[in-house]
Please model this.
Amino acid sequence: MIESGHGLDPVTGVPVFSLYGETRWPTDEMLDGIDTVVVDIQDVGTRVYTFIWTLTYIMEAAAEKGFHVAILDRPNPIGGIKTEGNLTEAAFTSFVGRYPIPMRHGMTMGELALFFNERFGIGCDLTVVPMKGWTRSMHFGDTGLPWVLPSPNMPCEEAALVYPGQVILEGCNLSEGRGTTRPFELFGAPYLDTEKLLACLTPASLAGCTLRETGFEPTFGKWQGELCRGFQIHVTDRERFSPYRLSLDIVRAAIVCHPDDFSWKEPPYEYEYEKCPMDMILGSKHLRECLENGVPVDELEKGWQDELNGFDREREPFLIYPTP
Model:
């Protein structure tokens, strides 16, 4: 929720309008004289990353005002095959989840735009300019392209890979590593008993990764200036690694091990001032309550598998790129 303001491009004098500041919606002033909005921005493959929801606002404005949207597609940096997680429930839609998609959606921004446009009835004039040479099995490192930070706390591909899980720590008092040089890869808190937490995790949650015990001191954000005991996540097998499962299990284990110290974040969160932030991130109050009650992650996964399978079927007609 660190906003940016409007301005002028210093070279051309063209006005620059922020859609993450005083408004999230494009206004008539911004759209005056526009016949095409070109969308050229790197997504990270996770439901709560807000670029895709700003895109839906632009598409809705395009349907209303009659201008064209052209998307210059870019890779999903964490691959286009694997999907993971529950779908957002209607009562918990927000700027971090406007439509019912899973936490890890396995689609490019162009594919998502096609999906949103038809499945949710936006109906704008839309063109997707596809990439050449990208296949669904490719992660960002496979492209040979340089990583350019899409946002300040997404400094590398490794952060993007763990983000679909570690972002949920924004909804509690565990540090997700903001204020360090490895955000989302690092997590912890001053109160955390690392040995106890590791022993409490389900072995299956650690598939494809290693948790290395470490300490860190955030320079901003949660626990600023305090020594946090925790871990760095090292992904050893991208195909077996399930970030959402791991992080849900981390939260469950932290509640079990530290019931008096663990707490949920209070509102506001991403322009919502009443709902519990964790409910918005998870897209479900029920899922948060299950974590509070120590429900095993295996059971949580079984509970959302049918709807995830349904999403996989629904997205199929909108997939542009092949699976090798």
